[in-house]
Design brief:
By secondary structure, this protein is mainly α. The chain folds into two domains: 49 residues, Orthogonal Bundle (Arc Repressor Mutant, subunit A); 125 residues, Tetracycline Repressor, domain 2, CATH 1.10.357. Helices cover 69% and strands 0% of the residues. It has ten helices and no strands. α6 packs across α9 and α8 crosses α9. The relative contact order is 0.12.
Length: 187
């Protein structure tokens, strides 16, 4: 392994360790020394990778924002089919990469007032609500989804997904629900 690859591996280890600690202990209760000890590395060496705990949090939130993707279905794909497929892919990927569950939890936490402002601003820009509301309107027009405020329905849909991801983060043995169950809320 090259020096550059070693450095990248260590950076990933710091990020994943911080993610786990921020979710399990809370951002404010996690100290830089906790992260360094868990990696393991010296606190001084950790500061060569990230200047502060706030910078580390912001980097994690940027990762979460990049991974959020879009809830826009390609033209011609029925909205209910696309949403079921999207959730199936999300749950499968998260089962293979358990840190994804923690990322959902962290992104939800960082959106709350009182969190470091830079990270909070990044997290607040991530929202699949509007894209999902457009899908719901499309499904309402075709009679697949029930009538109602599409934005509110999209908010409830994503609140359900967020809750599922939080439960799966807390209980790694919990099986993923059938995506049909979640999409059925819209029917």
């Amino acid at each position: 392994m090259t020096r550059k690859e070693q450095k990248e591996e260590r950076r990933k280890a710091i990020l994943m360790t911080a993610l786990t600690l921020f979710v399990t202990k809370g951002y404010y209760d996690t100290k830089i020394t906790d992260i360094a000890a868990a990696v393991p590395m010296s606190t001084g060496l950790l500061f060569h990778y990230f200047e502060s705990k706030e910078e580390l949090l912001s980097e994690l939130v940027r990762m979460g924002a990049e991974g959020a993707g879009s809830a826009t279905a390609p033209e011609g794909v029925p909205p209910e089919m696309w949403l079921k497929g999207f959730l199936g892919r999300l749950f499968s990927y998260a089962a293979e990469q358990p840190w994804v569950f923690n990322m959902f939890v962290l992104m939800g936490q960082v959106r709350r007032p009182g969190m470091p402002e830079e990270a909070r601003e990044i997290a607040m820009k991530v929202s699949a609500i509007d894209d999902t509301a457009a899908l719901i309107k499309k499904g309402q027009k075709s009679g697949v989804f029930h009538k109602g405020d599409a934005k509110l329905m999209a908010t409830c849909f994503w609140a359900s997904v967020q809750g599922i991801m939080e439960e799966m983060s807390a209980d790694p043995e919990m099986p993923a629900p059938d995506p049909e169950w979640i999409v059925a809320m819209l029917k």
